[in-house]
Specification:
Layout lengths: L38 H8 L5 H15 L9 E4 L4 H13 L4 E7 L5 H14 L2 E6 L2 H15 L4 H7 L2 H8 L4 E4 L3 H4 L11 E2 L1 H8 L27 H7 L2 E4 L8 H12 L23 H13 L3 H11 L5 H11 L7 H8 L3 H10 L6 E3 L5 E3 L7
Parallel strand pairs: 1-2, 2-3, 4-6
Antiparallel strand pairs: 5-6, 7-8
This protein binds zinc ion (ZN).
């Protein structure tokens, strides 16, 4: 129609936590209260009211209940990536509580050099038995593609492996106690309260950690067969009951201050952070194992939800008083949109071209976040425009 001016496309307006930098369209379930403070910040606040001495006593009793009386078996199993939280967990269990754990790693392939050095250091300094499982590289390449196409998550295989292999090994070795690290949905998003003492269950695994998908959903995708996914099968209810496997989160028993823990692990055991800056976040202490974890994997999170790991890191550091909110907002502005340099390597690894990748990625853009403007560019609301 002549004479009318097309309205400019504006993205949906997003609500952000008034205390940290989480948006309402968060990957982990999050709600805001009447003050505009998110559930993750409120749960973090609870830490000041928890009787940590009583929790520590509970943990000591737990260790005593499960410790092998005659040393004929492992006392517990710890799923470990070789990261800072793994070091902290092993440190507590072996040095403070005198437990003999079996360590289990789901190896993601594409290890970084610093990640491998930390895994070797973990073996050297703690002297524990260590199971390091790696699936067939051919199957992993297919799963990278399948995860991207089905869920917009090339790293889906890692969620599947981390949440199956250690529990399979627990059943195989008759180990009843599995010590998980942080409960991410609780500690970051505030899905539960510290009062709930949430434990690891098969239901939590599928509904939250695997977002409703399981290994069988990938049979027939990208040529994957059941035989490629045996490692991703969770033990049956009968197997879990026979061994009486119980999974607890260590963050329910000890105040979780990652910055403090990381520094202690560096000083005590020589844990290494990433020697060079990452493309997509300022933090150098997290997700060091896989070349693509802080790269293309995290970039897909940004494409889907409109924010990436720098937002998670800024929220963590704001809550712990390391950053102000304004500093957090600036870091989000600096890093969240960056297209990572490892994308070329990843495309080569899985055999996909850039256009195909972009087309698949665009299918997963959350309509609560993204809209295409009059030039065809994807645009979204930004936190720095809100202040
Ligand atoms: Zn918040």
């Amino acid at each position: 129609m002549t004479g009318t001016i097309e309205p400019r496309v504006t993205p949906p307006r997003m609500e952000y936590c008034t205390r940290c930098v989480y948006p309402a369209a968060s990957a982990a379930a999050i709600v805001f209260d009447e003050e505009g403070v998110c559930s993750g910040c409120r749960t973090h606040e609870e830490q000041a009211t928890v009787d940590w001495a009583a929790r520590e006593e509970m943990f000591r009793d737990l260790c005593d209940d499960y410790r092998s009386p005659d040393g004929s078996n492992y006392d517990c199993l710890i799923p470990v990536s070789g990261g800072k939280d793994s070091f902290y967990q092993i440190h507590l269990l072996t040095q403070v509580y005198g437990m003999n754990p079996l360590l289990v790693t789901y190896g993601e392939n594409n290890h970084t050099e610093v990640g491998m050095r930390n895994i070797q250091r973990m073996r050297d300094v703690f002297g524990c038995d260590h199971y390091h499982f790696t699936a067939s590289v051919e199957a992993l390449k297919k799963l990278n593609r399948a995860g991207l196409k089905k869920m917009g998550d090339p790293d889906m295989h890692a969620h599947m492996g981390i949440n199956a292999v250690p529990v399979q090994i627990a059943v195989k070795f008759n180990i009843s106690l599995v010590i998980w690290g942080e409960h991410g949905f609780m500690n970051m998003g505030g899905m539960h309260s510290y009062k709930d003492m949430v434990e690891y269950t098969a239901k939590y695994r599928v509904e939250h950690l695997l977002r409703g998908y399981d290994w069988f959903d990938f049979v027939g995708v990208e040529g994957l067969e059941e035989k490629d996914l045996l490692w991703a099968k969770y033990p049956t209810d009968d197997e879990i009951e026979r061994v009486d496997v119980r999974g607890v989160f260590i963050s329910n028993f000890f105040g979780w201050n990652q910055a403090e823990h990381t520094q202690t692990m560096i000083d005590t055991y020589g844990f290494e952070t990433n020697p060079i800056p990452f493309d997509r976040t300022y933090a150098r202490d997290s997700n060091l194992n896989n070349i693509h974890d802080n790269g293309v994997h995290d970039y897909m999170k940004y494409v889907k939800f409109g924010y990436g790991r720098v937002t998670d890191h800024a929220c963590r550091d704001i809550r712990n008083g390391i950053l102000t909110r304004a500093e957090g907002v600036e870091l989000v502005r600096q890093f969240d949109h960056v297209v990572p340099g490892d994308i070329t390597r990843w495309l080569d690894y899985v055999g996909m071209n850039r256009n195909a990748f972009e087309a698949i990625a665009d299918e997963f853009r959350d309509p609560r976040v993204w809209v295409q403007n009059e030039y065809g560019d994807w645009i979204k609301d930004n936190i720095w425009d809100h202040n």
